[in-house]
Amino acid sequence: MVARWADTVLRIGYTWTGSMQDAQDVSQTVLLKLLTSPRRFDGEEQERAWVLRVAVNCCKDLKKSAWARRRVPLESAGEAAVELPEVEDSPVLRAVQALPEKYRQAVYLRYYEEYEVEEIADLMGCRAPQVSTYLYRGKQKLKIMLGGMYGQQCLSE
Amino acid sequence: MDNSAYRNELDRIRYTAEGRAALAEQLMRAQSAERGRRSVRWPRKMMAVAIAAAVLVGTAAAAAGPLWERYFGHLDEGQQAVIDSLSATPETLPAAESNGTVMTPLAAFGDRDFYYLMLEIRAPEGTVLPDYGEEKGYYQLFGDVPGEKISLMDGDGQELYNNREFAWMPRTGEDNVLTAVLRLWPAEGVDFSDGTDKILHIPGLWVQSPDKVYTPVLTGSWDFNIGAHSGGVESRTPDVAGVTVESEDCGTMTLEYLRISPLGMRIRYSWSDPVEGVWPSAELAVVMKDGSEVSLANSVGSAGEDWSEAYGPFDTPVNIEQAAAVRWGDAIIPLEAD
Fold it and tell me: Which residues in chain B touch residue A75, judged by CB atoms under 8 angstroms apart?
């Protein structure tokens, strides 16, 4: 289970929070939840959808200080716990991470997870037209940051 | 370069072998610790039930805050005071029984724009309401046909349009009991705190399968008059004349209306240069006197070609006496003290 989902949740956590430390916290919380509340899924796609939803909610909870975290404090696995590509080797990733929060989340869900706009709206807790706006503006900003055809092609439909 | 560039770069974020091993070990230790906590869960739930009983017999005001921490998480003294000042009294919200199932309001509070109801659903003794994992479905307080919907009506039987959402609380350990928190937000023109009758109707309990098939579990009719109390803290409608924010695509956004209460906010704004398919917005938050900000937990609204109206609740109640301003994008709207 760790092998199957640890990296996925790490990427969601990093995209949402912008912090690798917070991403690791999210990863631990979600995987612990999966371990301690076992579920049966009809397939990997359904399991992935569950993991994604729980991870997104966990990122929201991390941001909202009101909700107490229901997890055992875990010791850090040390500095060698995760790999992150070098800045110069990941221009698109850096540009997406520089987007405003809502644009970044919408871009991740559309172009990495390949969700439809309505599904993204449900996950983000907003209306579908807002998602369309986030995607439109996100791509506009990426065009500017990445420049010309590169910016347009990197997220082509 | 094609659209896999983003995917390829993001895929390079991963745990190292050492990181995975350490993570797996820590999860195993945490899982053992979680099992240990579960063995003492029942006494804590009994304490929660005892607190709820204290609410019902009228020592409520001081206990309402801790009870709501089960839903909101930690509440400071100011937030608890807000809830206490807005709480309904037990006499105004008696339990309702139908077909052997008793629904009991454990606590309730609201202001003009938002209303929270913590509701215990107790099926007849011997009924087992199993835990459903998300792969099997969800409990819902409504079915999928007319007549099986939650409704809110005035004293004349007219439906009052409102948004509603609810969350299930952790189980108490009793197989025939569920606890839900309903959050209601009315459309403009409906005031939860005006003291007039507002009958909340719950049609029962269903299970919704992942492919949206509804199966009834408990059916009947449970009604609660949630209008029979008045909110303690007035909403504020600060002067927003001249408040504008520049949008990226649609020109200048002009704020036309803002209302803030301890439980949420409502705004209406317009923009100068409409673009088809684009609805501009600006981040909305309350700026507290200590510099922290509180955002809306969710929002709904309506929009036209060049205007939008949105409203929604805060994540947790806000001690509005400690609110300094509202931030809309980079515009600051001071909140004058009453």
Answer: 26
Cβ distance A77 to B9 less than 8 Å, yes or no, reads no
Interface test with B, best of A14, A31, A93, A137 (most B CBs within 10 A): A93
Predicted pLDDT of residue B104:
94
B132 touches chain A (CB under 8 A): no
Beta bridge partners of B180: B119, B168
Q: What is the pLDDT of residues B281-328, one digit of tens each?
A: 888 889 999 888 888 877 777 778 898 888 888 888 998 888 999 999
Given B225, B252, B284, the domain boundary residue is B225
SS3 B184: strand
Q: Are residues B209 and B311 in the same domain?
A: no
Tens-place pLDDT, residues A89-109: 888 999 999 999 899 999 999
Residues B221 and B249 in one domain: no
Residue B79 lies in a domain: no
Instruction: Indicate if A57 and A102 belong to the same structural domain.
Output: no
Q: Which domain holds residue B287?
A: 244-334
Q: What is the pTM of this model?
A: 0.57
A40 with B30: Cβ contact below 8 A: no
Check if the beta carbon of residue A106 is closer than 8 Å to that of residue A134: yes
Eight-state DSSP code of residue B241:
T
DSSP B105-151: EEEEEE-SS-EEEEEEEEPPTT---PPPPTTT-EEES--SSTTSS-E
**pLDDT of B121 above 70:** yes
Which of B20, B30, B133 has its CB closest to that of A39?
B133
Prediction ipTM score? 0.84
Give chain A's domain count. Answer: 2
Among residues B197, B225, B253, the one where a domain terminates is B225
**Residue of B2, B7, B303 with shortest CB distance to A112:** B7
In chain B, which residues have their Cβ closer than 8 Å to the Cβ of A112?
6-7, 10
